[in-house]
Design a protein that fits this description.
By secondary structure, the chain is of the alpha/beta class. The protein has 11 helices and 12 strands. The strands form 3 sheets. The protein has a 5-stranded mixed β-sheet, with helices on one face. A 5-stranded mixed β-sheet has the order 6-7-8-10-9, with no helix packed on it.
């Protein structure tokens, strides 16, 4: 008797940074639906890699779209990672868990206090016990031009003004706390800092590989014990004023060597690049720029889908 055929590997879709562009998000979602067999799409695991807010004009509508997905697609599994922008948004709304050691958030300001004047940290209602990133996010930066991105800052170093305005309040206003609906606050409060999946297949030049997948907004540090990093991220340890795995650059670009013993995919957004090298997947083609696409990757095929793709219905 012949053996039954192996079942198809389950589909995992990883969606890059959206940054307040709801039309891009809707177009990308439509293109994903058109690209994937219906039964597979309806049962896919969809991992959003974070940074839903800032830069683009529609943060409120983006979060409306995301919070509706579980009821619209009840057989899908949805994972919503926190990006560094989302952590800062949540910090301003006082939604982050307190530091586990009982220390005040203000302890985290000291290390970065030299930047307070330049970045114009928020000092209005509620700042006294606010996580550092909430103060930076809602601040009013004195420098007007971002020389790295070659764009003008939008209110703060995080470009948060469009997020405030999407909720109908001016940048830096404490009224945002009242303006954000409870459903959105719950979404932001529930964002995870890391997500792990076992038995994820990926097609490579050497054939299909069964891997562990770790999804984290920026990446894992090369020179820090992976177990320690995962422990901090799973606990959402807010004693750390700047979480490298959510906001780092070069330090989190590569896969830590200790993960090379067993095949591990690390998928991230954050870096304003689409970069695929072996099992390191960086899916952030848009980077929050108005004229660049929002992208997603489908596993196991590694097919890239963009909001700008023109697909037959």
């Amino acid at each position: 008797m012949s053996e039954p055929p192996n079942p198809k590997p389950r589909l995992v879709i990883c969606v890059g940074d959206i940054h307040g562009f709801v039309t891009k998000l809707k177009n990308l979602w439509l293109n994903l639906e058109r690209s994937i067999e219906r039964s597979e799409f309806e049962t896919a695991t969809v991992i959003f890699l974070g940074d839903y807010c800032d830069r683009g004009p529609d943060t409120r509508l983006v979060i409306d779209f995301l919070v509706a997905l579980p009821s619209r697609y009840p057989r899908q599994k949805h994972v919503f990672l926190s990006g560094n922008h989302d952590l800062a948004f949540a910090a301003f709304l006082h939604l982050l868990p307190p530091p586990p050691d009982g220390s005040p958030f203000s302890d985290g300001w000291k290390e970065y206090s030299a930047s307070e004047d330049r970045e114009g940290w928020f000092g209005g209602e509620g700042f006294e016990n606010m996580h550092l990133q909430g103060r930076r996010w809602s601040g009013k930066i004195k420098v007007k031009y971002n020389t790295v991105k070659e764009t003008e800052y939008q209110g703060s170093i995080y470009d948060a003004r469009p997020t405030f305005e999407s909720y109908g309040v001016p940048h830096g206003s404490a009224d945002l706390v009242k303006a954000v609906p409870d459903e959105h606050k719950k979404f932001l409060a529930d964002l995870v800092w890391v997500h792990e999946e076992d038995d994820v297949f990926i097609n490579t030049e050497d054939g299909s590989k069964c891997c562990k997948l770790i999804a984290v907004h920026a990446g894992l540090e090369k020179r820090v014990d992976v177990k320690e990093q995962l422990q901090l991220l799973k606990a959402r340890n807010t004693r750390v004023p700047k979480v490298e795995a959510l906001s780092g650059r070069k330090s989190v670009w590569d896969i830590p060597e200790e993960l090379s013993a067993s095949p591990t995919i690390i998928v991230s957004g954050h870096h304003a690049k689409l970069h695929i090298e072996g099992l390191r997947l960086i899916i952030d083609e848009g980077g929050g720029f108005k004229d660049k696409p929002v992208a997603a990757i489908i596993l196991p095929s590694q097919k890239i889908i963009r909001d700008t793709d023109v697909l037959a219905e």
